Amino acid sequence: MICGSMKPRCFxxxxxxxxxxxxxxxxxxxxxxKLVQELVLxxxxxxxxxxxxxYGHVSVRDDRNPNHYLxxxxxxxxxxxxxxxxxxxxxxxxxxxxxxxxxxxxxxxGGIYKARPDVMAVVHFxxxxxxxxxxxxxxxxxxxxxxxxxxxxxxxxEIRKAGGVTDMLIRNTALGQALAAALGNKPAALLRGHGAxxxxxxxxxxxxxxxxxxxxxxxxxxxxxxxGGKVTYLEQxxxxxAAPQDGFERAWALWQHNxxxx
Length: 262
Description:
There is one protein chain. By secondary structure, this protein is of the alpha+beta class. About 40% of the residues lie in helices and about 15% in strands. It contains nine helices and eight strands. The protein has helices spanning about 5-20, 35-50, 105-115, 130-135, 160-165, 175-185, 205-225, 235-240, 250-260; strands spanning about 55-60, 70, 85-90, 95, 120-125, 155, 190, 195-200. It has an eight-stranded mixed sheet with strand order 4-3-2-1-5-8-7-6, with helices on both faces. Helix 2 (about 35-50) runs parallel beside helix 7 and helix 3 (about 105-115) crosses helix 6. The chain is globular and about 55 Å long. It starts with 6 loop residues before the first helix and ends with a helix. The relative contact order is 0.14.
């Protein structure tokens, strides 16, 4: 292929075309290939749907060792490949990799996995739709049946109560534990002025919850603007009945197809 005067654009085209192939690289030695590939795909799905951008990250509990988890190195989610996946213990120490290559806020994941044995996947994201609900007295409530899981409640983590005045990042084990305590047994929590964290029993469900939480926030804000704040939300029993869905498997199949994965 001859790029000619279009070299920068040509390079970008080739990079984008290669992403599906990069995602299919063998897993790093010792890690479960299938789980690693699914984690890579989840990164691409969440990036492709605007939940993750250059920042934010998603992890999965290690299926070989439930006291460890897998997370990409410090990089944009949309560019993650199998070679970028790192194994961590619950203190968020890298196993067989340099700590400097990891996300600053990996302590979010370690803290939650340690506190919640039921959690198999965690995502932290900064979608702008959720931020207003973290800095106002307006609670994020289920208005849309696909986000019925929000009916369990969405606590707001106030980092100043745990660490005083900081740079807002979860930089250490103590802050990770404090966030996990604020999350409690809920499927999601907001971080004041920072974003959100969502947990689930699988990568498929955590991707669905993160996506539909973001969509629910957008719809709720629109409904409040239209109605002057008078909005009909899902009743508690409606939310309980609607929450199971199908594990978001239909959405996952579509996202997988759109990501070019097999």
